[in-house]
Amino acid sequence: MTATEERPAAEVGTARLRKEDARLVTGRTRWTDNIVLPGLQHLAMVRSPFAHARITSIDTAAAKAATGVVAVITGADIADEQGALPNAWAVIPDQKAPVHPSMAVDHVAFAGEIVAMVIARTAAEASDAADLVDVDYEELPPALELKAASRDEVLAHPDLGTNVSAVWSYDSAESGTGGDVEAAIAAARDGGIVIEEEFRQQRLIPAFMEPRSIVVDPTTEQMTVWSSTQVPHFVKIFIALVLGIPESKVRVIAPDVGGGFGGKLQFTPEEVLTVIAARRTGKPCKYNETRSESLMAAHHGRDQWQQVTLAANADGTVTGLKVELIADMGAYLGLVTSAIPLLGAFMYNGIYKFPAYHLGITNVFTNKTWTDAYRGAGRPEATYAIERLMDELAARVGADPLEIREKNWIKHEEFPFSTVSGLRYDSGNYEAATAKARELFRYDDLRAEQQQRRESGDPVQLGIGVSTFTEMCGLAPSRWLGSMGYVGGGWEHASVRMLPTGKVEVVTGTSPHGQGHETAWSQIVADRLGVAFEDVEVLHGDTQVAVRGLDTYGSRSLAVGGMAVLAAADKVIEKAKPIAAQLLEANTDDLEFTAGRYGVRGTEAGMTMAELAFAVFQGHKLDGSAEGCLDADATLDPDDFSFPHGTHLCAVEVDTETGGTKIRSYVAVDDVGVVVNPLIVEGQVHGGLAQGIAQALYEEAVHDESGTLVTGSFDQYLLPGAPDLPGFDTARTETPATTNQLGVKGVGEAGTIASTPAVVNAIVDALRPMGVTDVPMPCTPYRVWKAIQEGRNS
Amino acid sequence: MTRITVKVDGSSFTDDVEPRTLLVLYLREQLGKTGTVVGCDTGNCGACTVHLDGRSVKSCSLLAVQADGHEITTIEGLATNGQLHPMQQAFHENHALQCGFCTPGMIMQSIDLIADNPDPSDEDIRLGLEGNLCRCTGYQNIVKAVRAAAGGAQ
C-alpha cells in the first residue's frame, strides 16, 4: 500500500510541467543583475593576490582621481562599521575562530580576500579604477597543506595561536548507542578482518551558473537589497545584526536565482560591502562578481582527509567503524563552515548495522578560500568512505559487493531502526531498491562481461561500482539543531490565502533557485483545497512578502516547507467551516469537505472554496461569530529528518594503457518516499548525479605552493560539459516516510551523495586484478594510469 | 565612441558605443535585452549565446562594434505572436531547465545545432552543446529536448 492510493485527488504524483519555465525559456527573467535603478553606482573589489600577508599601506589617490569614481574605500575606513561576518554554528562551546571581516583591515588570510572597493558611475570605470589602487603587502608564510596545518607548523592566523578551530567526537560506547570500537578492532585483528584506508575529499567549488550579484537601494526609509542568494531571510537578519540596521528597515529580495548548490547559502562580504557603499553614498549600488572572482572567493566545499578503520568478522559481518577526519575550514568560518563535517558525522555507518562506532573531527584553518556547504555537505564525504570500505570488505572476503552489503544492511522489517550513531531511521527498503537496480543494470550480464574481459586480457577493462546509500536531510528539527550548537532553528513557515476571485495565493518561506517550488507547492495546495493547479500562485523570496522563512538548503524544502504549506491549507479549510455553516444555515457537524467543497451531509447543498472566498470578500451574510477571512499561516517544525536511500550501480570502462575512463552505464534507483512531481524529482537526481560524478572524475580546486588558486577559471576548473557525462537510467521505489504527513523525503542532494563512490568503486573494481585498491579523486587519466603502475609494482 | 547600426530581434538600433563594449553588455545594458546573461569571463560557459545572422555566437566574445551592420536574435526574439519557438517548447516539455540561467544560451545553441544537423544522435547533441555549461540538469533532459525538437522539425 502506498500513500498515493489513499489520496482522493490527482495532482500530487503527477508530472506537471513547470510553471517557472514560461519566463525562463523566453528570457523574461529577473536576475539581480537585471535590476537598474536611477543613479545606480557600480562597485569593483580589489582583492589580495597573496594567501597570507600583512597590508602595510594602501594608496588610493590615483583611483580616487580616475574618471567616474565616487569613492574608494579601504578596510581601515570601515574597520568599525563593517562588524564581523557571522558563524552560526559553534560545534563546541570554546570553538576558536578569527574575526571575519568583510574587508581586510591589516591582515589577509587567503588569495582573493577583499582589501578595498571602488564605487563608480559605471562598472567599467569601477573596474579600471580598482586596478589603480596600490596596495603594499608584507608576505607571510601561508598555511596551505591541511595535515601540516593541523599540526600548527605554520599559523594561518598568528593571533589565534593555533590552526585548530575545534575537536569534536562521537563514541557509541560513551553515548550508549553501541559498543567500544577499539575492542571491536582488537578482536578483528585476531582472525577477523581489519581494513584501514585513508581517503581524500578534494576541495570543490559549487560553481552555480549565475555569478553572485547584489543591488542595494538605500533611498527610502527602508533599505531594499536584491541578492542572488539561497537565503534571503538569513541575509535580512544578518544585515540587521552585523550592521546595526533595525530588521524592520531591511527588505531582502532573492529574485530569479541561477543555482546555488550550497554555494549561495551564505552571508557574504560582498553583501555587507554593497550595503555599506549604498549607505555611505546614499545612492543605489550594484556589485557583480566576475566568474574568476566567484571561483576564487565564493566559498568552496569538501576538503577533508578521512582516516577510516573498518572491523569485521571473517565472514564479512561488520563489527566496528572508526573514523578520524581533518576538515579544512579555509581562512575563516562562514555561516555553517564548522558544522559541515558534523552533518556527515551520523552517516558514516550508512545503511549498515555496525555494533560499534567512533568518529573524531578536527576542524583546521588554512590560508585558502573559506569552505562551507556544497551539495550534500558532510554526507557525500561519509557516504564515500563507507561505500568505498564496503567494496574493500567484499574484495577481502571474496564476496560480491551487493551480497556483503545485504549481509550487513538493515532489513526491511527492522524499521524503524536506531543506528549506532544515534539516529532513528523511520523507513526504508534497501532490498527493493537493490533488486530493481540489479535488474535495470543487467548486473549479472555485466559481471559476466567483466569476467570475459579479464580472462582475455582486454586492454579496456570493465568495472562495476556499487553505492547503496542513505542520507539524513530535511534540515532540521530545531531541538536537534539547538543541541548541536546551531544558533538558528529549522522550522518553516507558509501562508495560504483564498482570494476573492477564487484564486489561491501561497507564500512559502523556502527560497527556490531551480527546484520548482512554484509548481510542486501548487500541486500540494490544489489537492488539498480542491482547486485547479492553474489557480494557485506561489510567492517566495521577498522578505516583505514571505515575512517568515528559513529558505532552501539541506533538501529541506518539501519535507519541511511543503509540509508548512500543507498545514496552512488545512487551517484555511478549518477556518472556512464555521463560515460555510453560517452561509448554508447548517450545523458544522453536518458539514463535510470533499474535493474543494463544503457540503451538507445528505443534501445537495454546498459551497466551493471559491464561493466561500467571494462570500467572505463581500461579508454581507456573515454574522460576525467567525473571523471573516480565509487566510492562514502555519509554522512547522519537523519531528525528525527524512532518510532517502537508494542503490546506484555504475559500469566504467577503463583503458589500462592510457588511464582513460568512460562511464558505460549508470543506474540510479532512489527511494525518496512519496513523490509530488516525478519530473522534478528525476531532474534533481540527474543534476545530483552530474555533480557527484564530477567529483569522482573531473573537479578539483587546486592551489599552487604560494596559495594562489590555479583553477581560477572554467578553463582550469573542469565543470563537466554535455560530452563529459553519460545518460542516466533512473527509477524509483517508494517507501513513504513516516515522519511527515505526505510521506515525502528530500531529493536535492541524494544523487550527489550516492554517485561519487559508485564511480570510484567501478574504477577500482576494474583494476583490482592489477593490484589497485584505490585511486585518489578526481580519477583523472594520469591518476588512474599511475595507480595501475603502482599496483603492478606492488 | 563608435557609431553602430544593428538589427536586434527585428528592431533596428543606431547607437554610439565605446569600442571596448562587449556585444553582450551592449545587448543587456543599452538595449535592455536582459534575457541574455553573462556566466563567465573566459568564453567557456555559453550562457550569453545569441544568433548573429542566424548563426550562434558567444556575445561575450564579440565586441558590439563587430556586430555593426548585422542582424542579431536573442532568446527574447524567438517566440512569435506569443507562440514559443519549438526549441523553447521542447525545453519546457522535457524539463530541460532548472534554475534557467544557462537556458537562453543553451536554447540558442541548440537551434543552431539542429540547423546544421537536423537529425542528430545523442552524441552529436552532446558534442554540439560542448561550449554551453549547465550545472543543474546533468544535460540528460537537454539532450532529450533537442532530440524532441529535431524530431518535430522534420
Overview of the structural elements:
The complex is a heterodimer of chains A (about 800) and B (about 150). In chain A, strand 20 (about 505-510), helix 17 (about 515-530) and strand 21 form a beta-alpha-beta unit. In chain A, about 30% of the residues lie in helices and about 25% in strands. A seven-stranded mixed β-sheet of chain A has the order 3-5-1-12-9-10-11. Chain A has a five-stranded mixed β-sheet with strand order 7-15-14-13-8. A four-stranded mixed β-sheet of chain A has the order 18-26-27-28, sandwiched between helices. The two termini of chain A are about 55 Å apart. Chain A has a domain at about 5-30 and about 490-635: 2-Layer Sandwich (Aldehyde Oxidoreductase, domain 4). Residues about 1-10 of chain A have low confidence and may be disordered. Chain B is an alpha+beta fold. Chain B has two domains: about 1-75, Ubiquitin-like (UB roll) (Roll); about 85-155, [2Fe-2S]-binding domain (DNA polymerase, domain 1, Orthogonal Bundle), CATH 1.10.150.120. In chain B, about 35% of the residues lie in helices and about 15% in strands. Chain B has a five-stranded mixed β-sheet, covered by helices on one side. The longest helix of chain B has 14 residues, at about 105-115. At the A-B interface, helix 2 and helix 20 of A face helix 2, helix 3, helix 4 and helix 5 of B.
